[in-house]
Amino acid sequence: PDRPPPRMATPLTDYIAGVYGAFGTVMAILERHRTGRGQVVDSALYEASFSFMEPHIPAFQQLGIVAKRAGSHLPGNAPNSIYPTRDGGFVLITAAADAVFQRLARAMGRADMIDDPLFATSIVRGENMSACDDAVTAWSTTLDMADVESAMDAAKVPAARIYTVADIFSDPHYKARDMLVEVEDDVLGPVTLAGVVPKLSASPGRIR
């Protein structure tokens, strides 16, 4: 929280504003069908990204809280973060609800945490987020990614590995969903690009 604000490594605001513009266009067309009148669709870059800050607005207005960088954490919500694995990977584990946390604690071999005053309820876990995350990290770093995934799946704890681009290229789901599309470039030859989103059943679109 004490470090300078980081920037996104991708122009996310441009994408968000475009999506809002597309939705607004569809809404305007539907309204035209209903009333016969057209209208201007206005989607601004900063307003699009500002809409994603929704919880921080009343937090400042009501409590004077100025939001700061929180990393991969959800403030007051634990455990719910990204944790390292022994083989150098990272996995998102979300177990803030009491019942889910209890399953996580047992899977980690830390059933003692269930009745520990620092972790017994979601509220106190949120207040002791660092200690809670440290306990999960101490466990996750003793296992490889596949073992963490298996343990979380068996315990019915929501978890997902953090993919690298290399992981995406080797995942059959991305290929089955046509999200890795190869197109021919006059200079570069075959180039793989991201597929079309969303996918329409009658007019799915194509990359060119």
From TrEMBL:
Entry annotated with the keyword Transferase: yes
GO molecular function, one term: CoA-transferase activity
Matching SUPFAM superfamilies: CoA-transferase family III (CaiB/BaiF)
Pfam families with a match to the protein in the record: CoA_transf_3
Keywords associated with the record: Transferase
InterPro entries on file: CoA-transferase_III_domain, CoA-Trfase_fam_III, CoA-Trfase_III_dom3_sf, CoA-Trfase_III_dom_1_sf
Record protein name field: CoA transferase
Protein source organism: marine sediment metagenome
Taxonomy of the source species: unclassified sequences, metagenomes, ecological metagenomes
